Amino acid sequence: MAAQVKQANCAVGTVAETVTVSQVVDGDTLRLRDGRLVRLIGINTPEIGREGRPSEPLAKAARKALKTLLGKTATVGLRFDREKQDRYGRLLAHVYLSDGTNIEMALLSAGLAAQIVVPPNVMQLECYQTAENNARKSGKGVWQNVYRPVPVKEVSPSARGFRIIRGRVLQVGESRRSVWLNFQLRPDKGPREGVAVRIARTDLEWFGDKPLHSLRGKNIIVRGWLSPYKKQLVIRLRHPASMEIIP
């Protein structure tokens, strides 16, 4: 039976399941007693090192903070959004303690996570943005230097995973499936090298009437996951909340 939670700390009426956590995998992933994995919606925490790779700064601190929040009982409520699972088969949920505390908000407020939007799961967007903004203004945790926006000219060709980058949009182009934001080039790179941002046409509905071509010549900050595409590193921009126009 769905349980009531407080209308505070990003809570939304009811939770769909009350479950027991058996393991904190990292700062944004839980394993339940029944074996299911839960990926916390709306946040990204630094990655724990695996297969010989070192952990990212504050990754272990985020995991420890999550363990502390759960306490000994480790019983939480799951509130599902529009999508219940991701492509890896993990449950996607906003997670609450028994007193109604939203765990994502707690980690964001402590500066141990960055807010991220993967539509259509946007239920707590404004609340999570507010929590992150307060932590950023105070320079807490990852906002001291871990998640500082990196100029595109300084992005390493070997960079992968979650990044926050900044640069001036040199060109806005279109292909059959995407809209592309291309930054100023490195001196040693060709026209299709370096770093770019891709907005899939399937995500354009989230941008409403925002004219993407008007971004040409603007300086922007974008957050998301960097992955290689041909000779470029590409961030897929899923939602306008993951982009900021700056002077």
Structure description:
The chain is mainly beta and 247 residues long. It has 2 domains: 3-143, OB fold (Dihydrolipoamide Acetyltransferase, E2P); 150-246, Nucleic acid-binding proteins (OB fold (Dihydrolipoamide Acetyltransferase, E2P), Beta Barrel), CATH 2.40.50.140. 13% of the residues lie in helices and 35% in strands. The protein contains 3 helices and 16 strands. The protein has a 5-stranded mixed beta barrel. It has a 5-stranded mixed barrel with strand order 11-12-13-15-14. Helix 2 runs parallel beside helix 3. The chain starts with a strand and ends with a strand.
Number of strands: 16
The amount of beta strand, in percent, is 25-35%
Alpha plus pi helix count: 3
* CA-based shape: globular
Task: Give me the secondary-structure topology.
Blueprint: E1 3-4, E2 14-15, E3 17-26, E4 29-32, E5 37-40, E6 43-44, H1 59-70, E7 75-79, E8 91-96, H2 103-109, E9 114-115, H3 125-138, E10 150-151, E11 161-174, E12 178-183, E13 194-200, E14 219-229, E15 232-236, E16 243-246
Parallel strand pairs: 5-8, 10-11, 13-15
Antiparallel strand pairs: 1-2, 3-4, 3-7, 4-5, 6-9, 7-8, 11-12, 11-14, 12-13, 14-15, 14-16
Descriptors:
247 residues, mainly beta, OB fold (Dihydrolipoamide Acetyltransferase, E2P), 2 domains, disordered N terminus
